[in-house]
Structures are given as C-alpha cells and as structure tokens.
Amino acid sequence: GFNLVLKACATSPPSDGSNPFGVAVKIFHQMRDSDDPKVKPDHASYSYMFIICNKHLPDNHTQRLQIFKKLFRECCEDGMISSFVVDAMRNSMPRDLFDKLFKLKENATVDDLVLNDLPAEWRRNVPDRL
C-alpha cells in the first residue's frame, strides 16, 4: 500500500505537474501517526523519502537540509537504518551533511561506513539480511 505510493512519488518526473513531494509527505505523516504497526514506515519508506526530497525539492529550498536531518533522526529513532537507507542518503544529500550525520572521520570514505559499526538501536527494526 503506502510504500507503493512513496515509490511512485520517488520515480515520478520532477516536473510532470503533480506534487509528488506533497503527496509523499502527507502519506509519510499518516504512516508515522498510525497506531497500526503494519502501517508504520519501514526502511524502504525512509529510503523513498530521501529520494523524493532529493528529486522534488530544489537544491536552494530553504528547508532541504533540515528535512534531511529530520528524516535521518526519525529513521534512527525508528531503528530503520539499513543499507538501502544509507545508499539513498548517500545519493540524495550533500556529502558534508552525510559525513556529519554518520560522524565519518575527515579522510574516511563512504565505503568505510559499516552498518554493524553503527549504533544497534539505529538498526534494531531492520531484518538482518538488510
């Protein structure tokens, strides 16, 4: 259900006249506010949201970096940091913000980031294979 809508927003062209960002934010808030554990955002939901923000918010959008930070914080709180989320973040946000969020050392590369080195609570709700 909901992840299919997010995926559609993530793959929709930036200027097709629709409002994929607005639709995605509305759906994502419904998911976060739900009491049904089957509806809550999973790691794919967060991956799609990073992609949607990157694709549908202009680089000069005043809230762009704040939205990335908020998504990251919520993803960590929900224990949904997976390799998919890390890839989506790496491909969506400025490198300096990515490095700061993951506390990468100055000369470290993205390849140096190992999921198992991240706090376990950030990954606690992701299936082991991801």
Describe the structure.
- This protein is an all-alpha fold.
- It has seven helices and no strands.
- It has helices spanning 2-11, 20-33, 43-56, 64-77, 83-92, 95-101, 120-123.
- Helix 1 runs parallel beside helix 3.
- The mean pLDDT is 90.
Stretches with pLDDT under 50, minimum 5 residues: none
What can be said about the biggest beta sheet? none
Number of strands: 0
Write the H/E string, N to C: HHHHHHH
Q: pLDDT average, as an integer? A: 90
Structural class: mainly alpha
Helix content: 55-70%
**Tertiary shape:** globular
- The whole-angstrom Rg is 14 Å
Q: How big a fraction of the residues is strand?
A: under 5%
What is the helix tally?
Answer: 7
Distance between the termini: 21 Å
What is this structure, in a nutshell?
The protein is built from 7 helices and no strands. It has 130 residues and is mainly alpha-helical.
Element layout with pairings:
Elements: H1 2-11, H2 20-33, H3 43-56, H4 64-77, H5 83-92, H6 95-101, H7 120-123
Write a concise keyword list for the protein shown above.
mainly alpha, globular, 56% helix
